[in-house]
Specification:
Elements lengths: L1 H8 E14 L2 E14 L3 E5 L6 H8 L7 E11 L1 H7 L7 E2 L2 E3 L5 H7 L4 E4 L13 H17 L13 H9 L8 H13 L5 H4 L9 H12 L6 E5 L7 H18 L2 E6 L2 H7 L2 E6 L2 E7 H6 L4 H8 L50 E2 L7 E2 L26 H19 L19
Parallel strand pairs: 3-9, 3-10, 7-8, 8-9
Antiparallel strand pairs: 1-2, 1-4, 4-6, 5-6, 10-11, 11-13, 12-13
Helix pairs in contact: 5-7, 7-9
């Protein structure tokens, strides 16, 4: 019964999502096998350093990956009984009960879900608005598009492609040819009021450059809510805002969630925002979710050294310490030919052992049933005797003693691959990328 209840609460499930970018330098593995489970009505956070794949994951869910990018694998299951009934006959393989795999339906169907089912707040509100059209007109257009699409549930085309600047100009000259109805204009003003913009009637007639940064962020949230979506993806919604405005935007999202009962996927690099807003969290590094669980799991009982590093690099007003503890090094290259078959954090990890020379699966932890970590420390304690020697991943040739330690680490790793403890092993992998130092 508990399993059935959990399945009913699950609104969005992502399995094995992989997104690649094919550049002149090579294939970039931006998202590398991401799994997510997001329940109805919760706020789920994804946190990690810049370049870890958070925003690409969000855009992949929204099906907004442009060339040279491509979603190469994965399933995105969205629970929507009405949609399952509508497309079940034409696309039976894409339907499982009341859920639909968005990766198996035509692109036109996925486009029709933007706004009404899934909507997104982008990092830069300035680039999300047309500077030559008033904010109210743009919000009203978004509302009108969703109204027209909802009027024909079987249609997979929102018909926004028909509305251009020429259409807008014609509507100004000939009221009978106006694309946006008076009802949509009224709703646009209601949305501005909903997100806390003062004097919404007057503000609706202003252009984006006349809004402050915080007000424009609120207007973008209003635009995202135009279609009353089930899932709101907020990609760094407080970036470039001062602390006071950040707090107001977060309070606004909390209030809107309570009022509309929507689900929020929050993308951020700020653990303070995660602690304030989220029910559960996934920690992302180098295109992978390396730890996931409730706030208590991740903040109080974390397992992965990367999570520990993120927490150690933020100030704590209650702790007496002279300096923060930054994570050494940088996020690794995600170019396919530069990615070794090992734990991606091993070269920055203070607890790297010979196990880390192999890719690690996701392990259940002992702290709670829904707490998982992609780290060997989830199943065994750190052993200094198995630690990788200092400078193991450095490009410079090691001294003789370090080389001996490196050989021993490779021997132990090879023994586990072959199941042989006698010392008869496969050829060693002595340096980064399998090259001899």
């Amino acid at each position: 019964m508990e399993v059935l209840a959990n399945m009913t609460r699950e609104l969005l499930r992502v399995d094995g999502l992989r997104t690649r970018f094919y550049t002149d330098e090579g294939q970039v593995n931006a998202v590398n096998g991401v799994d997510l489970r997001i329940d109805r009505g919760e706020t789920y956070g994804i946190v990690g350093e810049s370049g870890s794949g958070k925003s690409v994951t969000a855009r992949s869910i929204m099906d907004q990956i442009d060339s040279p990018g491509e979603i190469t694998a994965g399933e995105i299951w969205y629970r929507k009984p009405e949609l399952a009934d509508t497309i079940g006959d034409d696309h039976p393989d894409a339907v499982d009960g009341d859920r639909v795999d968005l990766r198996q339906v035509p692109a036109a169907v996925r486009r029709s879900l933007r706004g009404t089912s899934l909507s997104m707040i982008f990092q830069d509100p300035q680039s999300s608005f047309n500077p030559s059209v008033t904010v109210g007109e743009q919000l009203a257009e978004a509302v009108e598009v969703q109204r027209r699409a909802s009027a024909n549930p079987r249609s997979t085309r929102a018909r926004s492609q028909r509305y251009t600047l020429g259409s807008m100009a014609l509507g100004q000259l000939l009221p009978s040819r106006r694309y946006v109805s008076p009802e949509s204009r009224e709703r646009a003003i209601e949305l501005l009021e909903l997100v806390g913009i003062p004097d919404p009637i007057e503000r609706a007639d202003e252009y984006p450059h006349e809004y402050s940064g915080g007000m424009l962020q609120r207007a973008m949230i209003a635009q995202a809510l135009a279609g009353e979506p089930d899932i709101l993806i907020a990609d760094e919604p407080t970036t470039a805002l001062d602390v006071t405005i950040q707090a107001q935007i977060l309070d606004l999202l909390d209030d809107l969630k309570a009022e509309t009962e929507m689900t929020i996927l929050l993308i951020t690099h700020n653990l303070g925002v995660i602690a304030r807003m989220c029910d559960r969290v996934g920690v992302m590094y180098a295109g992978e979710i390396v730890e996931r669980g409730t706030l208590e799991d991740v903040f109080d009982d974390h397992v992965h050294p990367y999570t520990e590093g993120l927490l150690g690099s933020i100030p704590d007003l209650d702790a007496q310490r002279e300096r923060l503890q930054p994570i050494p090094g940088n996020v690794p290259s995600l170019l396919d030919h530069e990615m070794d078959a090992r734990c991606r954090f091993a070269d920055r990890c203070p607890k790297a052992m010979d196990d880390c020379l192999e890719p690690q699966p996701e392990y259940d932890t002992d702290t709670s049933p829904n707490h998982q970590a992609r780290c060997v420390l989830a199943r065994r304690e750190y052993d200094e005797g198995r630690a990788l020697p200092e400078g193991y991943f450095d490009d410079a040739p090691p001294d003789r003693e370090s080389q001996h330690e490196r050989d021993e680490a490779n021997r132990r790793a090879a023994d586990r691959r072959t199941g042989d403890d006698t010392g008869q092993t496969e050829p060693p992998i002595d340096g980064p990328g399998g090259e001899q130092p």
